[in-house]
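Predict the 3D structure for this chain.
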Amino acid sequence: MNFTKMHGIGNDYVYVNGFVEHVADPAALAVKLADRHFGIGGDGLILILPSDRADVRMRMFNADGTESEMCGNGVRCVAKYSFDHGLTKNNPMTIETGRGVLALALDVVDAKVQTVTVDMGEPILALDDIPVKQGALGRNAAIKKRGEYEYELAIEKYGAGTIATFVSMGNPHAVFFVSDVAAVALEQVGPAVEHYVAFPKRINAHWANMNNKNELTMRTWERGSGITLACGTGACAVVVAAVLTGRSERQVLCHLPGGDLSIDWRESDNHIYMTGPATEVFTGTITL
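Done. Predicted structure below.
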């Protein structure tokens, strides 16, 4: 099977062109390929497939084999692969995801995609739709409401804070604002939040500190993959949480361990626009 290794600011996946390759069991394949010692290595597997609704379709599998609805860094790489390898030359391009069909504008230099701006759609804030268990709310329950968009989780702090804002970008996110993201013990608190009782589909967890009203620094624990260098949907969720809690303006530069993303939550259509690079690392062939 032929594959391509790509990353969006360090959030790396193994990409397979489903127009020519057949993958019978993508969940099992994701676990095998993502292994950084005995496989190719990556945060998971992304399939690029034909679509009857868009130019191409994306399916994304975490390193543990679970399928996720959406990956912001991954969808930029899908756009780059699709354009650079001639699956479509449409610009803007449309990609079918578990979030729905997304529109992407490509910055092309010398016939190669450099950066991509993705219309990520509107954020989802209703707890039932994220989902966060409504039944977990209450005086003695797992989460307690502390503000219009803030809830306290009954977890050990690990130096990481316990007040969260919940946002879905088609996949679920919990956002915690702290004074120093470098001090957060992600290895401990990440799994505790991901598997918390109030999250029936588990959750992606992010810790962020505001540098100013238009700039923040964040770290991520991704559902099914653990610590990653970047999370595109997570950066969108963090900015939404920052705006809703009065911490930021709507245009924010997000610093992630693997690089930077520009996020713009526009009042005109309530959509979030994410801009960042997409990089092809290498191609190869693996015997399964």
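Helices lie at 26-34, 72-84, 186-194, 232-244.
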